[in-house]
């Protein structure tokens, strides 16, 4: 099953003194196991553009639509047997400590 893992910032990161996992190790291990299909860091929120159509009119605005302190900073497309495996993959990601990870299954259309 495919999962989109949104990598998000967080205003309350983990404050323990434990060392965070290395992102390069996480990427190479999950790429080698075929669990990470694609992923990337995103440009800064200031580079975002929001597109909407309301009453037939195109509305384009700079920046993200949501007014929030937590923002999506990257993504990874995962291929996992089930949600439990996706959770284990996310648990080992450095941003599980420094931010938050949101897992969503992809829906076949």
TrEMBL record:
<dbReference type="InterPro" id="IPR011008">
    <property type="entry name" value="Dimeric_a/b-barrel"/>
</dbReference>
<dbReference type="Pfam" id="PF03795">
    <property type="entry name" value="YCII"/>
</dbReference>
<protein>
    <submittedName>
        <fullName>Transcription initiation protein</fullName>
    </submittedName>
</protein>
<feature type="domain" description="YCII-related">
    <location>
        <begin position="44"/>
        <end position="107"/>
    </location>
</feature>
<comment type="similarity">
    <text>Belongs to the YciI family.</text>
</comment>
<dbReference type="InterPro" id="IPR005545">
    <property type="entry name" value="YCII"/>
</dbReference>
